[in-house]
Here is the input.
Amino acid sequence: MYTFDFCCGRRFFFLFCCIFLLVAAAAVPQSAPAADGFNAENVVAKSLEAIWTGKKFDTGLEKGQQQLQKLLRAGKLGRTELRKMIEARASSMLERYVTSRYILRNASQRFDSVFAPYLTWKDAKKAIWKAGLSKAKSHVPMLITVGTLAPSGTPWINIPEKVTRPRIAMLSRGKILIKIYTGGVMGQDTDILRKMDIGQLDGCGCTALGVVSAAPELSVFLAPGLFKNYDEVDYIYKKFRKRIDNILAKRKYIPVALIDTGFMYIFSKKRTTSLEELRKRKVVTWFGDIETTMDKELGVRPIPVAVPEIISALNSGLADTNISPPAWMLGMQAYQYSNYYISPPLFYSPAVVLVSTRTKDRLQKRMGVSNAVADNFLELIVHEFNIDEREWRRQIREYEAKCLKAFKTKTGIKEITLSPADQAEIRRASAATMEKLAGKAYPKDFLNDILNALRVYRKTGR
Here is the structure.
């Protein structure tokens, strides 16, 4: 009897242990379905890190991605599990690796090639931001302040206010907010840059004046006759983007967007159908050596006036002619002092949205995160602005075209085209101005590199 009871007890104990182990195993969360030694979580982690660091997918990883996609198509791995894997890996990844805005430009295409349609780069960004925010020791929102001359309701403000700023607030769950001071309430570009330098502001939406003040080398983009159209502007911006960024970085600025102020035309109160007549006009000059040198090459005697005083000069009769972007003429109501404008334009006028490199230090201190995480957050913020650049430029350029059309159809301003001989003289003066200022206003090698790139682009289209 005792033997029977002992044996039964052993069997009962063995059965109990088996059931316990089965229940315990079922209760342990599985990191990923596995088949033939395949580890989905490992493939997700390596893929995400390769995308974040800009590394190529090696052959082994590509094979793993193919197996991962089979699991996703078969429904053996779901969207929720995938997102959790990315969140888990992102937490350590943000501490170990710092990405860059250049890498992030291709992140959407690379990520979606592996994980879409089950998970897209937009989903991944949310998971990455969430992982980064989980490391913050402080829950006090970080406010990034930007000053600009651009008035509310214009394309320069509409994109950041209605698109970029809300998206960053959403991704950061309200922990990173952007405040834009419009209409010059923080002063001119030079005032805003000075406030950035002493820590009163984080950023500036710079017109050409601010671009030249922030980095004189970039005044090369204002060289007369440099660009024939906006396609050329886009090509040069893309080709020389890292060079532009490096120039600004040396002065402790990070460009979050390269956009336009617009092409600049000659506007005049008096009918001006030739260079000879232009030389008789009282022409305002406001953006420095490039404009004055060009005026002198054309035989024009410029009247130096600060930007805030241009309207007063036109109104008082001190001047009757100015060179400005159409959008500025409309926004400042300066068109009412003009009856004519000369086409084609003389100059291209860039615009750049900058933030101070000190912003990263403020972000790190305010949120209580590591140096690497703060760097990654700043690159993510820049990336969000970069995403909107194309649409931003499109709206600005469309606005410029509408301004010119409105001038002709609603205000009676007439377009004038100079004779071929005068246009040839303008081209000569433009080339002479470029050459005279090379090595003075901007580096000669930078100008030559841009001119060489444009020559190739005009021949080949690339």
